[in-house]
Amino acid sequence: MFGRVKPLDAILATAEKKALHRSLGAFQLTLLGVGAIIGTGIFVLTAEAAQKAGPGMLLSFVIAGLVCAVAALCYSEMASMVPVSGSAYTYSYAVMGELLAWMVGWALVLEYAVAAGAVAVGWSGYFVGLLREFLGWDLGLTLTRGPIDGGVFNVPAFVISLFVTWLLVIGTRESAFVNAILVAVKIAALTLFCFLALPVMNSANFEPFAPLGFAGISAAAASIFFAYVGFDAVSTAAEETKNPQRNMPIGLIGSLAICTVFYLLVASGVIGSVGAQPLLDASGQGISPGSPELAKACAAQATEVVVCSKEALAWTLRSIGWQQVGNLVGLAAGLALPSVVLMMMYGQTRIFFVMSRDGLLPEALSRIHPKYHTPHVVTIITGIFVAFFSALFPVGALADISNSGTLFAFAMVAIAVMVLRRTDPNRARPFRTPAVNIVAPLAVIGCLYLFFSLSIYTLSLFAGWAVFGLVIYAFYSRNHSHVGRGLVEVHEEDPDIPPQPVAPMPGASLD
What is the CATH number of domain 24-480? Predict the structure, then answer.
């Protein structure tokens, strides 16, 4: 199980040949983190969190942010030691062996591909709202939601997924300038929301604070974790950071703190202005978000409530009298979210590309298009997978499934940090996790806490996915692995192929 370890020195050889200039300070890292974190989660999952926890989702945001903080510190040590492609998959390969590395890489499929589907579904909700408000087109539920969510097939989510796949195949990538504009649009929209919603808060809307108890708050925290993923964009910049021992924790904790405050203000605006109490079934239990039962309960409501909205922030502003501003917030989400789908699928295809290059997946997947110089085979397969998932599943279910893979991968990185401190204590570490004997176990415990706060449905899907991955490893990957066959080559990056990052390019949101 732990025998096939890819030598760390071989992995580092490429990075050493292509050292990057250290130019980023604490301020630049903090801005990078804020741009990478703020995105889909706060625009889309607010209604899902309200249905699980009610006003208690404020505490859920804090819990998820704290777990991210300790995980980020562990992630940064590994990223500073192994600043190469493949992220948690590569780290695990170097420390804990091929089988666990395979499972981490397999889990990253859930982090990226399923998250791309979740973002596509979230975009669909805002897009449908824009068509209704600007053009008066009511598309109904049949072709704008999946079968679990009261419809049949989510056509807008399916189409945007295929469109992004086409962009990735032909090699179109966002420029840093466009990314910066999209980040500014997202932050401006959320700032405007806070200015308009917070002044009309009613304290009565915060009672009862935890209608479904702490279990509901934990379940919401496990979902809201999706709104923070993206902080690893900071940790992957370790090689370009001046004085990383000082600036990395400032950038990581600073960006997480700023985003947590932002999220608490937005959530407070939603709760205080329109209320956020969950819908209950006949027995007084909370109805599962994204379920047919919730769709029926929403249809029976005399007036719409926020937990039924697919565009929670835009709907809130319209409900408190800011119709056109709500439309502008919806437009901001409609403009910004497709770029997130692109970055999620970009990261997924590059993880697959690295695994294929190591022989763990068929090498046909790493085939490069002769004209566009992109890994088109794996991109098309991933795109079709994302398109159908987004068309058939609700956003909350996809976000939770994505979180299960992310939490597993982050826990493995925290374990890898502790293992490597003992097995290779003298290796250079540009950034060292402070109080590692406390922080790393807290990261593992926090990830496990959120993991097991996910629904039984989600955990069952993760278990099924893991078993499926083990079968593939046993019957294909183990026999074709380059390390298993004694081929420990050092891969040179093709200049025509972009690097395979775990996080999006600066400014793009992962969540």
Answer: 1.20.1740.10
